[in-house]
Design brief:
By secondary structure, the protein is α/β, with parallel strands linked by helices. It has helices spanning about 1-10, 20-35, 35-60, 80-95, 110-120, 130-140, 180-190, 215-225, 235-245, 265-270, 275-280, 285-300, 305-325, and strands at about 100-105, 120-125, 150-155, 165-170, 190-205, 250-255, 330-340.
Length: about 350
């Protein structure tokens, strides 16, 4: 399995400089976190690009093409839970044929393709990472959905589209990379037609997070380092940002809090079942992958620096599991908001 991953990594245009890239990524992230807002705003695009140049192959190998978590019920497969999470967002936004919809931070297009197929809407994927966009375009072609999928290579704080271009906008665990929420939500507001709606699954520190607790702070820092994040906002900051740019908030809640029988969102990182997908994402699967990559890197089969990337992601995974168990973090703070009609 890891031999396949190492071959994929070597085919990555950035493969020859993985070691240098992971060092630059870590240096830039630490520098930006020490600096003020202006430093963050100027550095976040570079940090996000470095991050996804490094981790995209790992994500696809271990998780699939939809880079996000999802609520899950007993008896439901991991893949089905991801699709249901995507369908729910499309349903709430009322997506249908004839609509033009923006997907902020579309990754390699997994959710975009699923939502386009489910809703019949034309989805425009917005992404600052050229490597991911290349894959997203190819995947859309492979499934015959190019008539419902388009892509923009640009910064989601400065989208290359006129005011009021979209009938709806959504993001799935993507605007967590923005340096602040007012900037990105303000851009979403600009892009929406009057009366149109915005839906998102947002990273968020919950009310259980204690900024005075060193253990909590360490967990948060590990998620930021392993996730390419300058900040992880709390619920109040997100709510205030939405309203400050002019949104009418229709619904906002943590979907990680389920009322009936459920499987925790972080369970795939712990591991259960015997499928290949669940093994790869599990703690044991990550350990096997990391140790295999050590051997492959020593033999120069895998690019130098590959193990460092794997270990950074493992650090993040372990922190997310602990954050989930403590209830101090959620990756699915659900936002449903509307731009007021004129």
């Amino acid at each position: 399995m890891s031999v396949k991953l190492s071959k994929t990594l070597k085919d990555n245009p950035s493969a020859s400089g993985v070691a240098a890239t992971i060092r630059e990524y870590e240096d830039r992230l630490r520098t930006a976190k020490r600096g003020g807002l202006e430093v963050k705003k100027s550095d976040y695009k570079k940090i996000a690009n470095l991050y996804y140049d490094l981790v995209t192959d790992f994500y696809e190998y271990g998780w699939g093409r939809s880079f996000h978590f999802a609520p899950r019920v007993p008896g439901e497969s991991f893949k089905a839970s991801l699709a249901r999470h995507e369908h729910y967002l499309a349903h709430v936004l009322g997506l249908r044929p004839g609509m033009v919809v923006a997907d902020l931070g579309c990754g390699v297009g997994g959710p975009l393709i699923e939502i386009a197929r489910f809703s019949g809407s034309k989805i425009v994927g917005i992404n600052n990472n050229a490597y991911q966009l290349e894959r997203a375009r190819r995947y859309a072609e492979e499934v015959g959905l190019t008539h419902l999928a388009d892509f923009l290579h640009c910064d989601f704080l400065h989208v290359d589209a006129p005011d009021e271009s979209f009938d709806a906008v959504y993001d799935i665990e993507a605007t967590c990379h923005a340096p602040d929420k007012v900037s990105v939500y303000g851009e979403v507001h600009r892009l929406l037609k009057p009366g149109a709606r915005f839906g998102a699954y947002e990273y968020c520190m919950t009310d259980r997070f204690d900024a005075r607790d060193p253990h909590h702070l360490k967990i948060k820092a590990d998620i930021q380092l392993g996730g390419g994040l300058l900040v992880i906002d709390d619920r109040q900051t997100i709510d205030d940002a939405l309203r400050s740019v002019g949104f009418e908030v229709l619904e906002i809640r943590d979907l990680a809090v389920q009322t009936g029988p459920s499987i925790p969102w972080y369970q795939p990182l712990v591991g259960s079942g015997i499928s290949l997908a669940s093994f790869r994402s599990s703690r044991i699967g990550r350990w096997v992958t990391n140790n295999t990559l050590k051997a492959l890197e020593a033999l120069r089969i895998a690019p130098q620096g590959t193990v460092a990337v794997s270990e950074t992601l493992n650090l993040c995974a372990a922190a997310m599991v602990e954050a989930g168990r403590l209830g101090i973090f959620t990756p699915m703070y659900f936002i449903h908001a509307r731009k007021p009609a004129e």
